[in-house]
Structure prediction request, 150 residues.
Amino acid sequence: MKQILSVIFFIFLAIGALSAQSLQTGVVQFEEKNDIGLDNAGVIVPEVLVSHLKNIGAYTLSERVLLKKVLEEQSLQMSGMIDEDTAGEVGKLFGLEAIVTGSIMKIGEEITISGRVIKTESGEILASGTIKFTDIGELEEQLEKLAYLL
Prediction:
């Protein structure tokens, strides 16, 4: 029964993701609220997330490294995250319709990664999701779950 519910859940999420497929989207560095036990987590997490988003076909993705370079050139605060207010500016700079951003933190033994998709034109949050886990070895698997939530 639990497996059937899991399959239904992922099918439902995949259908929702397909509706956003036509959006030209960029993924930016995530904000590290504190150390989760992984050096450069703010860079590594979105890099892995891009692979999962591409594999499930959720969005038309722009090259993240190039996006980071454009943002740095424009002196936007990468460590302060892109939010609803700055997403429009980023979209104009790079011709994007949406930005994927998020945050990473550890409270006690629990690692929390939150992500959201922000429409650049309006600042509207199109999708959001949060994953929580305790074993850093589960990062890859958990990021795949986050991709489906987004």
